[in-house]
From TrEMBL, chain A:
<protein>
    <submittedName>
        <fullName>Polar amino acid transport system ATP-binding protein</fullName>
    </submittedName>
</protein>
<dbReference type="InterPro" id="IPR003439">
    <property type="entry name" value="ABC_transporter-like_ATP-bd"/>
</dbReference>
<dbReference type="InterPro" id="IPR027417">
    <property type="entry name" value="P-loop_NTPase"/>
</dbReference>
<dbReference type="InterPro" id="IPR050086">
    <property type="entry name" value="MetN_ABC_transporter-like"/>
</dbReference>
<dbReference type="InterPro" id="IPR003593">
    <property type="entry name" value="AAA+_ATPase"/>
</dbReference>
<keyword id="KW-0067">ATP-binding</keyword>
<dbReference type="InterPro" id="IPR030679">
    <property type="entry name" value="ABC_ATPase_HisP-typ"/>
</dbReference>
<dbReference type="Pfam" id="PF00005">
    <property type="entry name" value="ABC_tran"/>
</dbReference>
<keyword id="KW-0472">Membrane</keyword>
UniProtKB/TrEMBL annotation, chain B:
<feature type="transmembrane region" description="Helical">
    <location>
        <begin position="29"/>
        <end position="49"/>
    </location>
</feature>
<protein>
    <submittedName>
        <fullName>Polar amino acid transport system permease protein</fullName>
    </submittedName>
</protein>
<dbReference type="InterPro" id="IPR043429">
    <property type="entry name" value="ArtM/GltK/GlnP/TcyL/YhdX-like"/>
</dbReference>
<feature type="transmembrane region" description="Helical">
    <location>
        <begin position="254"/>
        <end position="276"/>
    </location>
</feature>
<keyword id="KW-1133">Transmembrane helix</keyword>
<feature type="region of interest" description="Disordered">
    <location>
        <begin position="292"/>
        <end position="326"/>
    </location>
</feature>
<dbReference type="InterPro" id="IPR035906">
    <property type="entry name" value="MetI-like_sf"/>
</dbReference>
<feature type="region of interest" description="Disordered">
    <location>
        <begin position="1"/>
        <end position="20"/>
    </location>
</feature>
<dbReference type="InterPro" id="IPR000515">
    <property type="entry name" value="MetI-like"/>
</dbReference>
Length: 271, 326
């Protein structure tokens, strides 16, 4: 994971689903500028689950949002599925910003689950899941409904499909949100603290859906504080602090035998 | 504290149901008596005063001239509101646009039409033919493509209609902007993450939610517009209800009954509009709070049913079943 000077120059490993190179993110300008990501490198192989840990403000969520272009990166490159996100590089090596329509298309291959669910409140659970396949993929309503019924069964909410989000518990809403993201058949799923807004007794139902998803071979990047989930499900654990990756490796190393002092301090606090 | 009587039925799930005497509320009775007396006085003052000429009111309230004036008022109200809504949606989106030119144009339009009185604007539109006897389309300072006499095309009706619509669009645009701003930014983000394009996000996700905020003040504006149409005499357009009835009243030296006729029609139309607004609000409120819509309600005992019952009681402000309120 060496820093690469020329953004987007490093050819991504063929097996890599995600390849983040020397990514910097600065919010604001001049005196108000906040440097949130300070050169992050991250590789996620196809079918792998990576869990990102770190104190709040360390840039975990920002990194996730940079991967699916919800934030424009300030420096470096993000390659997902072999495709450079957000830019086109011409023969001279000049970067051209992609048209929003093309960026939207790139995003449609990446599913995202938010801390606060963000289900569409004016649509039922089923309509929430059908929305993107119909509106983005142009799938017929009938086919989308068929698919949505499968997905809602997969997250165990067939008896709640006609409910509006306001009529569902937080755990149920988050499971619908996962089904909504899966409806686009993403190659990669991003989870931004998916259980942080839930009551303790509802965390388990969401984690078990995520665990099933990981078992089915989905490539996942999960920002979470659930150390137990990281230990059990993650192939890689990444510890971030102050905009850089401090330590990365298999859970047995990072969680049980952290080398870095900052990782040890953090784990001492959350465990 | 507990009941003095035996339980009314054996299957009451509350074994110790309280049958206490309610708090005495003498104020309610006093208020009812006072209001009844005042209402009787008002009714007496209206009915027994012969100057109201209720016979004339009853005769002319159904007069074909009055009905025709009501129809013109309705055409002006709805015509101008439809044009204003289309303009306002455009203006509100321009205000939110990335393009600074669009933002500026929208700002300037709203600034001008909100900043001058509607009456002045209507007089101005009426004088358009004096200012510009001929209107033409062409390149500024260059050749003309075609031209027409202002009077021939822009009749008083069209000037009144667009005059009302332009003024209203400025107010509606601000209402729409408030509505669009009220939608949680997380909604647009979630839609974006699903790969939806900006136009789709606006149409499918943001506007339907903004409508919940937009509809009540827009209903208010429509009702207000109904009455504002009486100002088109400034153009001058003399077909609508206020002018038509007051002209009849002046001809017959009976201004009061004709004012009453106009007031009754305005009240009737406003009442119908309020009913329509109620149903619109219910439709766009689906999925929010107690207005859960048909589909959710049918599932009896789910969290929705329980939540709806708790919310309907009105004593709990927060959703007890939800961990975070979005």
């Amino acid at each position: 994971m060496s820093a690469v000077a020329d953004p987007a120059a490093a050819p991504a490993d063929a097996a890599d689903m995600v390849s983040v190179r020397a990514v910097h993110k600065v919010f604001g300008h001049g005196h108000d500028a906040v440097h949130v990501l300070k050169g992050v490198d991250l590789d996620v192989a196809r079918g792998e689950v990576t869990v990102i840990l770190g104190p709040s403000g360390s840039g975990k969520s920002t990194l996730l949002r940079c991967i699916n272009e919800l934030e424009e990166i300030t420096g470096g490159s993000v390659v997902v599925g072999g495709e450079l996100m957000g830019y086109r590089k011409d023969a001279q090596g000049t970067l051209h910003r992609l048209h929003p329509k093309v960026v939207a298309k790139q995003r449609s291959r990446i599913g995202m689950v938010f801390q606060r669910f963000h289900l569409f409140p004016h649509m039922t659970a089923l309509e929430n899941i059908m929305e993107a396949p119909v509106q983005v993929r142009g799938m017929s309503k009938k086919a989308a409904k068929q698919r949505a019924l499968e997905l809602i069964e997969r997250v165990g909410l067939s008896d709640r499909m006609e409910h509006y989000p306001a009529q569902l518990s937080g755990g149920q809403q988050q499971r619908v949100a996962i089904a909504r993201a899966l409806a686009m058949d993403p190659e990669l799923m991003l989870f931004d603290e998916p259980t942080s807004a839930l009551d303790p007794e509802l965390v388990g139902e969401v984690l078990s859906v995520m665990q099933d998803l990981a078992r089915s071979g989905m490539t996942m990047i999960v920002v979470t504080h659930e150390i137990g989930f990281a230990r059990e499900v993650a192939d890689h654990v990444v510890f971030m602090d102050d905009g850089v990756i401090v330590e990365a490796g298999p859970p047995s190393e990072v969680l049980d035998a952290p080398k870095e002092q900052r990782t040890q301090d953090f784990l001492a606090h959350v465990l | 504290m507990s009941s003095s009587k035996a339980p009314a039925s054996g299957n009451d799930p509350v074994p110790n149901r309280i049958h206490a005497r309610p708090v005495p509320r003498p104020g309610r009775l006093v208020a009812a008596v006072v209001v009844l007396v005042l209402a009787a006085m008002a009714a007496n003052a209206l009915v027994t005063n012969e100057n109201f000429r209720w016979d004339v009111v009853w005769l002319y309230v159904r007069d074909v001239v009055v009905i025709r004036a009501v129809l013109w008022t309705l055409v002006l109200t709805f015509g101008s509101m439809v044009i204003a809504v289309v303009l306002a949606v455009t203006l509100a989106m321009m205000r939110r646009s990335d393009n600074p030119v669009m933002r500026w144009v929208s700002w300037a339009w709203i600034w001008f039409f909100r900043g001058t009185p509607i009456y002045t604007q209507l007089i101005f539109w009426g004088l358009l033919a004096v200012l510009y006897p001929r209107l033409s389309l062409g390149i500024p300072f260059g050749p003309e493509f075609f031209s027409f006499r202002t009077d021939d095309v822009l009749t008083a009706f069209w000037l009144a209609l667009f005059g009302l619509a332009f003024n209203e669009s400025a107010y509606l645009a601000e209402i729409m902007r408030a509505g669009l701003t009220s939608v949680d930014p997380g909604q647009a983000e979630a839609a974006k993450a699903l790969g939806m394009k900006d136009g789709k996000i606006m149409r499918r996700v943001i506007l339907p939610q903004a409508m919940r905020v937009i509809v009540p003040p827009t209903g208010n504006e429509t009702i207000s517009m109904l009455k504002t149409t009486s100002l088109v005499v400034a153009v001058p357009l003399t077909l609508e209800l206020t002018y038509a009835t007051s002209a009849m009243g002046n001809r017959q030296f009976l201004p009061i009954p004709f004012l009453v006729i106009a007031a009754l029609w305005y009240l009737l139309i406003t009442s119908i509009l309020m009913v329509g607004q109620h149903y619109l609000e219910r439709y766009y409120g689906r999925g929010f709070g107690t207005a859960t819509g048909r589909r959710g309600k049918s599932k009896g005992t789910g969290p929705g049913g329980k939540q709806a019952a708790i919310a309907a009681a009105g004593t709990v402000k927060e959703d007890v079943n939800r961990e975070v309120t979005p």
